[in-house]
Design a protein that fits this description.
This protein has 330 residues and is mainly alpha-helical. It is built from 16 helices and four strands. Among the domains are: 72 residues, no CATH class; 58 residues, no CATH class. The protein has a two-stranded antiparallel sheet. Strands 3-4 form a two-stranded antiparallel sheet. It is globular and about 70 Å long.
């Protein structure tokens, strides 16, 4: 009870400045052009007049509730800005919407605090934002915290806590959370290994639309975990995952057909899967394509094409790609 009270006070202390900035009668407010918390009738950082917002559709600066040029509503514009994927452009809208208690914006604000982008890095503040988001009905807040504890990216790795948060997210209907719980049971993390329980979670997540869960189910069938081994069903589920957009499954199918691990080897088919995975940004498949062109595995050797794939893999974040490229061109 004390822990909950302290956490509640932390949430209030972190978000109250934002909430008061959004209030009509408060002295402070959040600039919708630069995201600064300020006072007075114009922003102390960028000198924009209080209440001005920039339409995301046409770039017009406005003071009214809808754009005077294209008619787009302010709230819709701000929500689109917050979700645009560019953290710098999104910042003013994220901060403003978080002050109003929007769950998605609170989750986004948590990422700013966790990364230290535009605000001092503060894991407690990130946690408070996620808690507030979840209480506002955005269960993604539980997922963010669960992943942070699972990976230790917020300074502390605690897989018991991770499982607790994933359980909350799963109860709120997030398929990915059920997949995480399945991995805990499959690998025996925190809980006793239980393949049958893992399969239950994987199946629930897969049927709810989580593509990677089809792949996890496929692996259980391929290696007889929690069920009799069934290669045909495994391949069917790998295909389901691939059709649902899982680059991991496409990459694995590429490996399977290139090596003949579960099926007769078919390099041409393996390369097709690798290409599809690479189109979705899978760096491992890019490396595999580079190696195939370097060694003539299923294709005619082509060092220029191999270099292209290694370069793309490097751009996708593969740390081994630069060395592969250097070895190709000593």
């Amino acid at each position: 009870m004390i822990r909950k009270l302290l956490l509640g006070l932390l949430v209030v202390s972190l978000l109250c400045p934002l909430l008061s900035a959004a209030a009509e009668e408060g002295a402070g407010w959040i600039c919708l052009c630069c995201g600064s918390e300020t006072v007075g009738e114009s922003c102390g950082a960028c000198h924009t007049v209080k209440g001005v917002w920039v339409c995301g559709a046409c770039g017009t600066r406005n003071l009214t509730a809808s754009c005077r040029n294209c008619g787009k509503g302010r709230e819709n514009s701000l929500q689109e800005q917050a979700a645009c994927g560019d953290p710098l452009r999104a910042w003013p809208a994220v901060r403003y919407l978080a002050s109003l208690g929007h769950g998605d914006a609170l989750c986004a604000l948590a990422e700013y605090y966790a990364s230290g982008l535009l605000v001092p890095r503060d894991y407690d503040a990130a946690m408070a934002c996620c808690e507030a988001a979840a209480k506002a009905g955005c269960a993604r807040g539980w997922m963010i915290v669960g992943k942070a504890y699972d990976r230790g990216t917020w300074g502390e790795q605690d897989q018991f806590k991770a499982m607790t948060y994933f359980s909350r997210a799963a109860e709120a209907g997030i398929p990915e959370a059920s997949w995480y719980l399945g991995t805990f049971y499959e690998e025996g993390i925190v809980v006793t290994r239980n393949y049958g329980k893992a399969v239950e979670y994987y199946r629930a997540a897969a049927e709810a639309g989580d593509a990677d869960s089809w792949m996890s189910l496929a692996a259980c069938y391929a290696y007889g975990r929690g069920m009799d081994r069934d290669i045909d069903t495994a391949l069917e589920y790998y295909e389901k995952a691939a059709e649902a957009g899982s680059s991991l499954s496409l990459d694995y199918l590429g490996y399977v057909y290139m090596t003949g691990e579960l099926v007769p080897a078919d390099p041409a088919k393996g390369l097709e899967y690798y290409r599809r995975a690479a189109e979705l940004g899978n760096g491992r498949s890019m490396m595999a394509l580079g190696w195939a062109y370097q060694t003539g595995q299923g294709v005619d050797p082509d060092l220029k094409e191999a270099a292209r794939w290694y370069e793309l893999a490097a751009l996708a974040g593969r740390e081994d790609a630069p060395q592969a490229l250097a070895n190709l061109n000593p």
